[in-house]
Amino acid sequence: MMRITEQPSKYRHLEKMPVEEITAHINAEDKTVACAIEASLPQVNRLIDAIVSKIQAGGRMFYLGAGSGGRLSVLDAIELPNTYGIEKGLVNVVLAGGIENLYLAPEEKEDDTREGWRQLREKDINEKDIVIGISASGTTPFVLASLEECRKHHITTGCIVSNPSSPIARQADFPVEVITGPEFITGSTRMKCGTAQKMIFDMISTTVMIRLGRVEDNRMVNVLLLNEKITDRAVRILMEKGELSDYEEARKLVLAHGGAKKALDYLQSSLNG
Predict the structure, then answer these.
(1) pTM of the full structure
(2) Among 29, 21, 22, which residue's Cα sits nearest to residue 181?
(3) Which residue, 12, 183, 238, 266, is the most exposed by fewest CB within 10 angstroms?
(4) Which residues are known catalytic residues?
(5) First vs last Cα of the chain: how many Å apart?
């Protein structure tokens, strides 16, 4: 396979550049990320369809990663229960070194070929689920060995990688290869690769939640009432969707029913009463 992610940066003698030149070059490289994702959209779409199908059939989704990509997947997964009101455990992360050690970033755990499958087994992984390996290089031992075990146990797999024809992509039923090219700092895949991974995580999780009915029109009607800002947002959603003009009345309904969606359902049932 071709390790594009390890190819030398086209920018030389960075230590001699003024700040303005460094930031301009980084910005220019970042602009190429969206185009790289656009080229991989057919693969992304197939992966999303597979995730939706698995969840609708009673399964769960697992991100499986190490390094920057794995840590970014944690950020994506932890937002979903609050934003879309899904039950915890529907979208999960298996991280090299464990999520509890996220801040410590134990990079040596990327080479552990047993830990990923052990963590998956602890979560009772089964054929209803789908596991998505995250690896910029496409060769991370932690991810590769875990996907190999998934395939042996007939568990559906996907991946997000940034090199073509990688071993991890070969172990994925639904591979996504987003080729972002050499990094500004040679081999620093937390940069363009990480940006691409974050954008794809947003794309996957948002689209999955929409397809699962957790969004109406363009509103997060199932958002949990965790603070005043979010409660205000839910009240305004109810006012718009329920055609209410009294803020305090709408707020009482939202609080009484635990969210905009349940309050809307109550209003609709009252009308059909």
Answers:
(1) 0.94
(2) 29
(3) 12
(4) 79, 110
(5) 64
